[in-house]
Design a protein that fits this description.
With 307 residues, chain A is mainly alpha-helical. Chain A is 62% helix and 0% strand. The chains are: A mainly alpha (307), B alpha+beta (351). Chain A: One of its GO terms (cellular component) is mitochondrion.
Chain lengths: 307, 351
Amino acid sequence: MGLDAVVRPSPLQEISEEEAIQIQVPSALPPDSFTLKPYVDQSETLSKLVQLGVNLWELEQRPNVGSMLVRLDFHADVAPKLLFLKDLGVEESKLGTILTKNPFILTESLDNLEARVSYLKTKKFSQESVAVMVSKAPYLLNFSVERLDNRLGFFQKQLGLSAEKTRNVVTRLPKLLCRSLEPIKENLKVCELEFGFRGNEIQHIVTTVPKVLIANKRKLTQIFDFVHNTMDVPHSLIAKFPQVLNAKFLRIKERHLFLEYLGRAQYQPSQPNYISLDRLVFLPDDVFCSDVALATLEDFERFQKTL
Amino acid sequence: MTTKAARLFRRMDGLFAVYKPQGVHWKLIRDTIESNLLKELNSCPPPAPQLAVKFQLLSSGENNGSKDLILSPSMLPSLANHPLVKGPQFHKVHVGVGHRLDAFSSGVLVLGVGKGNYVLEHLCKSHVTRDYTLEGEFGRATDDFSHTTRVIEKTTYDHVTQDKLERVLAMIQGANQKALITYSQMDLRTQEAYELAVKGLLYPHGKSPPILTGLRCIHFNPPHFTLEVQCVNETQKYLRKLIHEVGLELRSSAVCSGVRRTRDGPFKAENALTRQHWTADCIIQAIAHFRKTTRKIRKSGMYRQTDGQLNSSAKIQEQIRSEIGQSDQEHVELTSPTFDRIVDRVAPGTG
């Protein structure tokens, strides 16, 4: 009685073509891996996503997103949502960035997505504005109808704006609907109490520069303190040019000190050689030096090195 | 065959200087510069996609006539090495900072990229001094010695004249000269040490407290005044405290409203990059500009490791000084010369 004498064919043995075709080769895919690289070529979903422009490398850094993407079926899950977004009017070039920022749009059910879009349309948002909002804030359609309703109501009530203006503000900055409301409430309180803006001034600021609502409170206070106390600009002028609250603090500071050094720092509209705040902040450096400060760029750089 | 990105990365090796604006932490600057360099590197075109053998069901050739599908191999581009799957080509560029500047101060900040970081170490150990401009204001004293923090006391300053200020500065300078001689651990009775002291090449040996090698008042307009300082081993808080002590010596009080570093060793403010120029090509140009200086720092650092070779190090001193040449003498009126050249120090006890 010898040992198990199963005759296994040797690798160098000749076999016929029919036998060769019937050999089952197990898949070479590893059962688990740290990256999506081994699965990209085999999986139809992943290769189509890469061709769309989705940044798989970024997505696999997030916990559990990689496994979710591998398990998706292209024809059942991914294709209907992509067609839905295309019907909505989202440009094809933007689809990649939207999916990179929010891959969970592929796991949301199609009924929910359609319900939220129809809710926004009942609130009189046009088709193009909904498409623009989705491209700017990819998480928008993952929020429930109640939450969107809550937020829109809050903005209309708090800011006291008409429905048309609220729609305008939300279309330009749809992130307002996605974030929590506490920091926005704090920013509004700061504008009203600390800065001392009146109600209609705040309304004008928010409609011109909605970013003030989600700006960092400390940076906003720093800019306002410098513009109001050091540059001596009154509230009415700041409310007229709210872009200055959105600019970088160092830029405002260096340009103002340069103008003061040259003796051209005049911010009152009634005086001659008046410089408006938006020109101070908005112009690029070379145009600022030649038109506003009437000096060369080298002078400005030399002055920067003395600050 | 090197890619464009690899060639660009190889050029990012060396030291350069940046002008740090006031109110910004030095780490933010270092991070900004690193991300700007990475952005430029990753924007270079990626290499061509790799081909992989794939078996596809293709129809057989025309000689058969029938439409049979057979498995045939072909080379197709594989998506596994696509940049969107693999990630960016460069994740990190090693950017290091020389002598740090705290958030309140502004001025020249030396940064090293890639292999330049090793030279940064030599720069820190070499005998370089730093040049500061301190702005002070009489009449107040605060807890942090700067003009923005809580005021502790207010005093009058009408009795302060430029003459008294100069006298106080001379006294401080004398104390610092004595400290320099003590910490250099050299016996001034020897001829060698005397010659070094005459040329102004004394330097503290080992760890030492901050020492001012030069101090003068460049502007006096009460309550504001400006001092120019050359120092060694300092921190910016020490310099603000210096202003406070000057105020105390004058029977008044003073706060510091600005600390500005105008020179860090051989790196001067004229060649420092301002904020608009923190892009990859400007940085590479600045590295190329400072290449000679970097080489000299590295040479002087290498030779310092061999201690006791007195004659060779003295010769190198002369060589380096003649090569760098007489740079513009901005600080002519100072009592001690500026250390804007990299010089070797003679080892103690070998005099």
